[in-house]
Design goal:
There is one protein chain. The chain is mainly β. The protein is elongated, with a radius of gyration of 22 Å. The protein has one helix at 185-196, and strands at residues 2-4, 8-14, 19-24, 29-34, 44-46, 55-59, 64-69, 80-81, 91-93, 102-106, 111-115, 127-128, 137-139, 148-153, 156-161, 201-206, 214-219, 225-232, 237-244, 249-254, 267-275, 278-287. It is built from one helix and 22 strands.
């Protein structure tokens, strides 16, 4: 379900008569899409092409992944044939920080695909994965600045650590959109608003202990100036890093050097975050050889 710009709330549902139905909030049929196989893949929504309108994605037993505009017109480059049945849900996330979502889907044939909005294969994908996987979950679970892709299969739960700087858009990134399984795109958007109202706080310092660089992850209000001060165990300030708040999560990297560009010795350090003139939190760091 999603509130589509210019056309109101729509409910998309697949059926075993080879058809996806898009239904208006009053129960009337808006449009339908015929396929050559049962549609047992729950539909999902994203603005794939950056036109500020949501597109509908779904898979089919005919081995295709489909994408349609809210007007009922196919998105350019779609459908894409993945060679086996698609019963999992299509999910989305910005894997490479280009401010555009990648489209991810797992097939019954044990292949994980990722596509660009135009249907082109993305980066290192497709990847062979064990068994018949479930719908992927895409999230930075270890707070290291890149995204992790998890899915269930006959062996339990497997994961892929995708080593590129992640983007921070809010997307339908798991089965039925969110942990509550509401299947409502609007809940993803409201979740983003809740995150942006969080008090500024360090989420994690990673790696810690560290040898070369370490990263500090924190939330802060948009437009607030952020100072991250690094102190040694004697309380002497060795480095200060500044940035501006963006209304969401920020990542700052300390390269292990002091203000003169010299590498600091091994030992215990403390990072103190000051946002808008107020000290927020202090975190201990340990540098090792």
């Amino acid at each position: 379900m999603a509130n589509l710009v210019g056309s109101g709330v729509k409910i998309a549902v697949g059926s075993t008569n080879d058809t996806l139905y898009v239904i208006n909030a009053d129960g009337t049929l808006d449009f339908k899409v015929g396929t050559s196989g049962d549609v047992r893949s729950s539909p999902s929504f994203v603005d794939a092409d950056g036109d500020n309108n949501l597109e509908i994605f779904f898979g089919s037993d005919d081995h295709n992944v489909y994408a349609y505009h809210s007007t009922g017109v196919a998105l350019a480059g779609w459908p894409v044939n993945v060679g086996s049945t698609v019963r999992t849900q299509v999910v989305f996330s910005d894997l490479n920080n280009d401010n555009a979502p990648e489209i991810l889907v797992a097939s019954d044939g044990g292949i994980l695909y990722a596509f660009e909005a135009n249907g082109d294969t993305f980066d290192i994908f497709p990847l062979t994965i064990p068994g018949s996987p479930t719908t992927p979950v895409v999230e930075d679970v270890d707070n290291d600045g890149d995204l992790d892709i998890f899915f269930g299969n006959i062996n339990g739960v497997s994961g892929i650590d995708y080593k590129q700087q992640r983007g921070f858009g809010t997307y339908w990134n798991m089965f039925r959109c969110n942990p509550r399984r509401t299947g409502n795109y609007g809940d993803a958007v409201s979740g983003l608003k809740e995150d942006r109202q969080l008090s500024p706080v360090v989420v994690k310092v990673y790696p810690n202990p560290f040898k070369g660089n370490t990263k500090m992850f924190f939330y802060c209000e948009k437009g607030k100036k952020v100072y991250v001060s690094i102190y040694n165990a004697a309380g002497q300030k060795v480095r200060e890093i500044t940035t501006m708040g963006n209304g969401g999560r920020r990542i700052l990297t300390w390269d292990g050097k002091d203000r003169k560009g010299n590498l600091v010795p091994t030992g215990v350090y403390f990072c103190q975050i000051n946002i808008g003139g107020k000290k927020q939190i202090t975190q201990k760091l340990i540098k090792i050889e």
